[in-house]
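Holo prediction — L-homoserine.
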Amino acid sequence: MLSNPLRVAVAGLGNVGVGVVKILEKHKELIADRAGREIVITTVCARNKNVDRGIDLSSYEWVDDATQLADMDNVDIVIELIGGEDGVALMSAKNTLNNSKSFVTANKAMIAHHGCELADMAQKNDVALRFEAAVAGGIPIIKAIGEGLAANELNLVYGIMNGTTNYMLSQMEARGLSYTDILAETEELGYLEADPALDLDGIDAAHKLAILSSVAFGTKTDFDNIHIEGIRNIETVDIEYAKELGYRIKLLGITKYEDGNLSQRVHPVMIDRNLPIAGVMDGFNAIVVDGDFIDRTFYQGRGAGEGPTASAVVADIIDIARGHKGPAFFKPTEKLVAANPVSINQRLGEYYIRLHVQDEAGVIADITASLTLANVSVKTMLQKGNERDGTVYVIMLTHDIRETAMKDALNRINELPSVIETPLSIRIEKL
Ligand code: HSE
């Protein structure tokens, strides 16, 4: 057993930081046995000391400024749970790694944007950079991909990477709530990120997808080329039609890599209701990874919250205590490939299209003419009138068409005088 304890500084004392302290205190002996040495918190850090965090932090040294931690003699590794793409978190990461100390973070935005640069710093200074908690909370997906599946060539990873929007879609279906109503409720429950757009517009899921692409395929993180759409346009009517048609709507992150070409996208999809991932409801996350020797693997668990996220952080600390400092993306940084981004416009597949139109003669003929001009072939059409207001939803499922043809069709249809709401399309994915 190594005799020297690993001395840890925890920066950021929100619920995850508090969770890390609780786990390291509660499982002190169990963790020491597993890590082969003791792990002790020496220092904690947050901006405001005078907050009741529900735990006693008086035995730890208090520091207000996270950027100082890297220089402290009684700190071997820094745990950053502050968040934010850059600012203090990034400064703290750079100081720590350049001081030849290992760095653990749950910061998805920072790793999605600066992961390669930080991995390079860690490599040059012969220390570890770890971010298991940045993706899918309590699901050890980074370890599963980078270690458990290391024998495989991977080319597809997809999943539910944002618990908040999965909760919202689940509740819309279960309780027939409108988007506006579930949004208000989710806000009240405190489930949304400080900037709700991160959840609602798919950005949070895209941060996680960018990280998973690099871990799975050994490509450089490329957040800027992810096609991102959120759930703001999904309405109860779409959820009901999805059900009627045998589908369920999910916000998925999908990344595919083939022959140097990387397709990364986050958007609502309609998937077969009977797929295991379609049954993952509420705040849960789920990830599917396909490998050439393993076939398909499926991981499910809590994607957020104090316990699950802190569990992932502590697993990284244990790894470092064991002396593991292999490359952050499981390949030396000079081997990470700059992949060619594949545009969403190249997608070939089926689409669900929802039109809200006046219920009057000639409307369907006009819609059909627009579809013909855009070269879009329809597989199924449903129409349900609303006698009260004289409008009707026209729902169409297309055959396999190009994304560009779908957009062309929707633009043409949107110009028709009888169309009373911007048409919506949802990609149907066969996964
Ligand atoms: N807002 C994130 C989610 C938190 O809902 O999944 C966990 O990353």
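READOUT: The CA atoms of residues 100 and 154 lie 32 Å apart.
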